[in-house]
Amino acid sequence: MIKLSNISKAFGRNQVLNNINLTVTKGEVVVILGPSGSGKTTLLRCVNYLEKPGDGEIAIGDFSVNCKHARKKDIHQLRQKTAMVFQQYNLFRHKTALENVMEGLLVVKKIPKEDAKQRSIALLEKVGLGNKLDAYPSQLSGGQQQRVGIARALALEPEVILFDEPTSALDPELVGEVLAVIRKIAKEGITMIVVTHEMGFARDVANHVVFMDGGVIVEEGTPGEVFNHPREERTKQFLKRITPELNYSI
Amino acid sequence: MKLDPSFIWTAFVQLLGAVPTTLYITVVSVLVGFIIGTAVALIRIYKVPVLYPIAVAYVTFIRGTPMLTHLLLIYFGLPVLIDGLSAYFGWSFRSVNMPMIGFAYISFSITAGAYMSEVVRSGLLAVDRGQIEAAHSVGMTTPQALRRIVFPQALAASLPNLSNSVIGMLHGSTLAFTVSVVDINAKAEIVASTNWKFFEAYVAAALIFWGLTVLIERLTAVIEKRINLYNRGGVV
Ligand SMILES: Nc1ncnc2c1ncn2[C@@H]1O[C@H](COP(=O)(O)OP(=O)(O)OP(=O)(O)O)[C@@H](O)[C@H]1O
Ligand SMILES: [Mg+2]
Description:
Chain B: It is a multi-pass membrane protein. The structure holds two protein chains of two kinds. By secondary structure, chain A is α/β, with parallel strands linked by helices. Chain A has nine helices and ten strands. Chain A has a single domain (2-242), classed as P-loop containing nucleotide triphosphate hydrolases (Rossmann fold), CATH 3.40.50.300. Chain A has helices at residues 40-47, 72-81, 97-107, 113-126, 142-155, 172-187, 199-205, 223-228, 233-242, and strands spanning 2-11, 14-24, 29-33, 55-60, 63-66, 82-85, 160-164, 192-195, 208-213, 216-221. The two termini of chain A are 35 Å apart. The mean pLDDT of chain A is 92. Chain B is built from ten helices and no strands. Adenosine-5'-triphosphate binds next to strand 2 and helix 1 of chain A. The site of magnesium ion (MG) has 4 residues of chain A, from helix 1.
């Protein structure tokens, strides 16, 4: 179980996250929705400690970090329990697909090379890239790169995988292949927090939908609750804008 | 005065004896300079307290003054420092025991460090921020991320500039003659002084420097091809 308590973050005087509380149970797929600038990316980055929260606590299982007094060791441990799939993929450019997946296993988990290699090959096969092991990122399409990114995250066997708009940098015809992979691993019971604008995907993969606006969680619930019976005015407005074909009684 | 082509060849052969000296000076100053430069670049990028202003002053001072001046400052200043320290701590070492080439090593390393810090810094800045973030996200520590992810890419990005620095230091090493080190250029003067065929001797020296420079460029091209495979997306 992952528990975020009172997470706050400001950039200078711009308060981007304001007392965020969120509980994610094991195996749950949480989808975070919200307008641009609402703090979704920042929240994910805080969980991975790529951004240092100003305040709050991040707990994963019985491990917890108090953001005010986080030591290097805590941050290191937190990062090992979380993995990130980036909007811009951020694959290691000078490493092949296989090396990208192996890197964390070798350097962080200190797994013997042959073992790491076999595991990485299996993961790349799982995301449909068994034939691209030796390709460099520059030789792969965006969709393929993102699938390597997913394999790289899976390799670490984290407690939770964080996806920040994993398909929004992709050409429309490549979105499907990446979503299919995410769906597949969601079914395997891997805990994930996904920021996305893909409403169809959110509806049928999410167990838990969170709507953020202005640095706070405005509303959360099951997809049925949030999509079909939003309670808050801001949620209704947002859903109306993003899915114009649906009509919500206001 | 008549040109004596055969003396070019005679001088060429004699100058070869001084090639190791030139290469030692170049290699030492480039290697030490690269280490200094990397440290200075990291200090500047991470804005390390206390060291940051020192690093900035070092780079601006060295880049703002000629290499020959550095050599003379070291040549005349270092003995005072060494003998002063020796006397204070009761060491037996005296500056007169220091080989002349030592002044060239120290001074040119300091020169190279400042120039290389700029090269390394721009190489590091050329690496996308997302790379180190991705390294952190898989659980690497910052030193691991720098060593395994950032430095290799920075090196690839700065290779052309590094190669230029090496060539600059090779040519700059000729200044060592001012502290009586016999490099290729100084040797040319010595070889010619017996028969006044300076032009021929310097033609020979020029040919050797040219050859060494071409060699460095070739070597760079080979390394670049290997290291940059991933950029061009394929085996060329
Ligand atoms: N490194 C930063 N420095 C300063 N301000 C930042 C930084 N990163 C984000 N912000 C600000 O924080 C706010 C929230 O940004 P964030 O990227 O978290 O929003 P988002 O919900 O992910 O938006 P989008 O849907 O456009 O990706 C914005 O106002 C943004 O300008
Ligand atoms: Mg975002």
